[in-house]
Amino acid sequence: MTNKATICVHTPGPRTGAITPIDPSTANKYMGMDDVYYPRYFNTRNQEVIVQKLARLEQAEDGLIFSSGTAAISSALFAFLRHGDHIILSDELYGGTHKLAVEEFEKFGITFDFVAVNDGERLAAAIRPNTKLIYFETPSNPLLSVTDIRRVVAIAKQHGILTMVDNTFATPICQNPIALGVDVVAHSGTKYLGGHSDLSFGALLTSTALKMVIHKHCTNYGGSLNSIDCYLVERSLKTLALRVDRQCANAMRLAEFLVGHPAVQTVYYPGLSSHPGHQVAREQMNGKFGAMLAFELADGARTKQFLQKLSVIEPMVSLGGVESTICQASETSHKKMPREQRLKIGVTDELLRLSVGIEDAGDLIDDLERALE
Ligand SMILES: *Cc1c(COP(=O)(O)O)cnc(C)c1O
Fold first, then answer.
1. Omega before 142 cis (within 30°)?
2. Which residues on adjacent β-strands are paired with residue 185?
3. Ligand 1 lined by 75 (C-beta under 6 Å)
């Protein structure tokens, strides 16, 4: 198999040069054509090249590209679920996905449960005769909990239930859920796939058969991506492996530094042998543990002051860019989740989520050290 770093660089299909020419046309010839090309049909050349590249990186047959991660996720969920169906969602989810379930499912007659899916017994107990889908993230946002993908898949297959994984945090460089039996992988490309904090898009990678099901519906929902952004995605993907490798190596060094610092109380990073999911992460991730980590200060009351003292690492919403960013989950990604529920899953008011960039690791450690003094 071709190495991922090579897949990232080369454009699939007929050679057109280093990058696919931008074809922004929305009015295309239809006479004598087998297919009509139109952005909302998800079939333009600019859309297709990035889908092919991402499918190869995720070891999937096929896929679709969307205007945001949420457009990708909601298109898949509403394509598969209908009135009367039940879905199991992990209780540790990106805040926006949690909000989507809570605010949208009920009006369509879809029932749902948030379950600790990394607990096989609880997962099995939550399955109902009308359960259609199990949806989860690993490593999860923001606590980096690791779920045994093979175990969830085994339980789901016994019951004929589809599985879907949001692989945003791991990226296709670190983890390939489809190769472990998952049916659909979702990405918020806005994060690592774009990688420069300047693009919004999403992707689904799956089998051709399931892609057809989603395609039938997503053309009705309309969350397609325009050609110019597709061009920027293609350009960004060229450095994906390079960026993510560096980010993972930096994250490991920062995690080790934070664990050893007396002013830091807890560090969540699946690459640390002390992380409860470390063994599973070793087995199902490609020897890289991602570049997201979370931690709490020993003196939680000093969290704001710590953030203000940082000068290289910037307090910002979002993640996955080449620059290191940090945020308090309770004020950003999980702001909309009721406090009680947030605390139940371990997202304390003070929890800090760090997205490690490609800067020099020594500079990042110096920055943390100064702010922790
Ligand atoms: C950001 C994010 C999303 C949503 O993606 P958008 O591109 O903002 O719609 C979904 N899942 C995870 C894990 C994310 O971090």
1. yes
2. 165, 205
3. no
137 Cβ closer than 6 Å to some ligand 1 atom:
yes
How many whole angstroms from 90 Cα to the centroid of ligand 1?
15
> What is d(CA 187, CA 122) in angstroms, rounded to the nearest whole number?
26
> 194-253: per-residue pLDDT in tens?
999 999 999 999 999 999 999 999 999 999 999 999 999 999 999 999 999 999 999 999
Question: What value does the mean pLDDT take over residues 295-299?
Answer: 95
Specify the higher pLDDT residue, 33 or 322.
322
Report whether pLDDT(256) > 80. yes
- Within 8 A by CB and 6+ apart from 289, the residues are 139, 174, 248, 251, 252, 269, 270, 271, 281
Q: Is the CB of 188 under 6 A from ligand 1?
A: yes
Half-sphere exposure of 188 (CA within 13 A, CB side): 20
Q: Is 195 in the pocket of ligand 1 (CB under 6 A)?
A: no
Are 69 and 188 spatial neighbours (Cβ–Cβ below 8 Å)? yes
Name the region of 163 (left: φ>0; alpha: ψ -120 to 50; beta: rest).
Answer: beta
Q: How far is the CA of 111 from the centre of ligand 1 (A)?
A: 22
Q: Is 306 exposed, middle or buried (0-12, 13-18, 19+ CB in 10 A)?
A: buried
Q: 200 CA to middle of ligand 1, Å?
A: 9
Least confident of 41-50, 59-68, 293-302, 337-346: 337-346
